[in-house]
């Protein structure tokens, strides 16, 4: 899965995993488990210097964990869904390398809501998390920090973009559309990796 926070990618990823019976590897699950490390470091860092490099290290650790879990599943012959923003080309490159090592074909499912007001409402209405933006202003700051790197060419990798705020289109319709997209590649590849960042 690919997309900014609050775009509906986790909702869609969970629905796809349930429908397809694929293991779901969620970066937020891994990142959530680093809370106590960050909390302990923040106390020590408060007296010393900024903890932004440590936060970045924990984020990188979260990605490393999802790549390793995905690798194990793929090498067992399973298709997987990776729920992460996939916001940086380096993460995409790692996904491609991982898929190649397992003989799998990645498939990108990017969530891009066209209705900014609905997106904002969704973001600000969801359960608060210590490491995710919870306000529109926090999201804008995060996106600005990417400096446009989230828009990159995926080359030969099959990709579909879904509008998670389209009028009169529910999760079931989005799942059906994505499953049809994935099915169009099943005959060509032994394993598909639906992914999106």
TrEMBL record:
What's the domain of life for this entry? Eukaryota
| Species of origin | Corchorus olitorius
Q: Know the name of this protein?
A: Uncharacterized protein
Q: Which InterPro entries match?
A: P-loop_NTPase (IPR027417)
In terms of SUPFAM superfamilies, this protein maps to: P-loop containing nucleoside triphosphate hydrolases (SSF52540)
Q: What Gene3D superfamilies does the record tag this protein with? A: P-loop containing nucleotide triphosphate hydrolases
């Amino acid at each position: 899965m690919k997309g900014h926070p609050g775009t509906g990618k986790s909702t869609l990823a969970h629905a796809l995993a349930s429908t397809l019976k694929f293991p779901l590897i969620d970066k937020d699950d891994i990142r959530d488990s680093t809370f106590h490390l960050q909390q302990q470091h923040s106390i020590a860092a408060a007296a010393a210097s900024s903890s932004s490099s440590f936060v970045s290290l924990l984020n990188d650790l979260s990605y490393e964990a999802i790549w390793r879990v995905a690798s194990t599943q793929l090498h067992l012959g399973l298709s997987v869904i990776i729920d992460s923003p996939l916001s940086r080309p380096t993460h995409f490159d790692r996904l491609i390398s991982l898929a190649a090592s397992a003989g799998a074909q990645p498939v990108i499912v990017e969530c891009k809501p066209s209705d900014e007001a609905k997106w904002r409402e969704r973001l600000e209405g969801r359960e608060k998390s210590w490491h995710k933006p919870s306000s529109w202003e926090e999201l804008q700051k995060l996106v600005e920090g990417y400096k446009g790197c989230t828009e990159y060419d995926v080359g030969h990798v099959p990709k579909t973009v879904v509008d998670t705020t389209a009028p009169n289109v529910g999760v079931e319709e989005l799942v059906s559309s994505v499953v049809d997209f994935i099915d169009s590649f099943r005959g060509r590849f032994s394993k598909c990796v639906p992914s999106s960042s």
